[in-house]
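hey can u check if this looks right to u? its 201 residues, i copy pasted from the old doc so theres a chance i mangled smth
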Amino acid sequence: MLALAQLDVDYRNWHSHQHWANPPELEVMLPSGPWPLLWQADLRDPLNREAYHRMLQCFQARGHGAKDFTFWASSRAPAGSSHLVLPLFAHVEDYRMRLAGGQVAGTLGYWSNEQIRHQVERARDGWFAYCTDTNACSLLDLNYLAYTLTACDLRGAAEVFTAIGPYATPAPWKHVCEGRWWQDDFAKARNTALKRAGYRH
């Protein structure tokens, strides 16, 4: 149901009132959205990863509210929760759109932002550091963390790349590819991170 809510993008011609409900009380900075559906998902499986990602995709489809939603979700996330990675998905999409629109020329200016760097560090220290079995982690979450750690030039990327192993996912690499092949960008970032950390590869 949250996936279907992504198709309801025009408030002037809405499909369901549930898709345009008010946000939680006192959260005035959050946009209207399919909040009742998220609460139903939370009742069935609290903090379900897919439900929150579907909610994020809904706001991305509408063109506003994605970052605010991820900041709110991550601020409520307990230690070890993959919700701490949610802001990275929003930042990568924002960077992709700015790159496509010619608003940024490369990674340096965008990823040097202190707020972004803080959120990447929170994902590293509050989620990845708690992963006792990285085989159970989402490969997308690992790849987004590896990319953003590399883009922000923060420590810890080598450990994340080691957890990824050979299982690179097209996203986020394909979305922000600097060369012709996203696989080359992944390999370059991986090799640089491992070399800096003194890993053999």
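The CA atoms of residues 1 and 172 lie 25 Å apart.
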